[in-house]
TrEMBL record:
Residues 1-82 form the GST N-terminal domain. Belongs to the GST superfamily. Residues 85-203 form the GST C-terminal domain. It comes from the Bacteria. This is Glutathione S-transferase N-terminal domain-containing protein.
């Protein structure tokens, strides 16, 4: 049994997709980030980061923050969506690291300046839009002739997809990115993705 501390953001949905794909028992503890739930004392006792997602694995008494670590933990403990050995394992970890360290932070800052900060300086908006668009271009090239980012569907796809899904809110035009457009459609049609977003909306 797991508990997922969750808000309906890109980082939150990554873990919901994985839990749905694994078809394991879990409950969602919803946090309202706008109200500051992430700073509440009971949450601070679980994590020093004041951020979702956070996973509790009750069977192991494990409390784990950071979406990349959570995806890797679930993949390894269930032997799914991450090869145990070999070059494909490191291809998946490479793209997971790219999402965590590049796409997430750049798109996250871009979202903030574009959607949440009415006073944002045009330099900040322009810089993060360019950074985010360049990362979409990287992905467009990497998806050439591939259904998924590392051949087989993996935790790297689960990490990347929620950030692409919000391309309109990020003001990134994907009309000229056919590989990303097809990838988005392919992933949006998957059962666990559909159920993850449905459960996220109800949480
Ligand atoms: N590196 C973290 C980033 C997590 C993160 O930024 N979470 C956001 C929501 S997507 C959050 O909780 N923000 C609350 C805040 O910054 O106050 C991860 O990948 O899990």
């Amino acid at each position: 049994m797991y508990t997922l501390y969750f808000a309906p953001t890109a980082n939150g949905h990554k873990i919901l997709i994985m839990l749905e794909a694994l078809d394991v028992a879990y409950r969602i503890q919803r946090l309202d980030l706008a109200l500051g739930d992430q700073h509440r004392a009971d949450f601070a006792r679980l994590t020093p980061h004041a951020k979702i997602p956070l996973l509790v694995d009750h069977a192991q008494a494990l409390v784990l923050p950071e979406s990349g670590a959570i995806l890797q933990y679930l993949a390894e403990t269930h032997s799914r969506f991450l090869p145990a050995v070999g070059t494909q394992r490191y291809a998946v970890l490479h793209w997971l690291a790219w999402q965590i360290s590049s796409l997430g932070p750049m798109a996250g800052q871009h979202y903030h300046f574009l959607q949440l900060d009415a006073q944002a300086h045009h330099y900040a908006r322009d810089r993060y839009l360019k950074q985010t668009a360049a990362l979409f271009d990287t992905l467009e090239n990497a998806l050439q002739d591939q259904d998924f980012i590392c051949h087989d569907y993996s935790i790297a796809d689960m990490a990347i997809y929620p950030w692409l899904r919000i391309h309109a809110q990020l003001n990134v035009d994907i009309d000229d990115l056919p590989n990303i457009t097809a990838y988005l459609q392919r992933l949006a049609a998957r059962e666990e993705v559909i159920s993850a977003y449905a459960k996220g909306a109800q949480a």
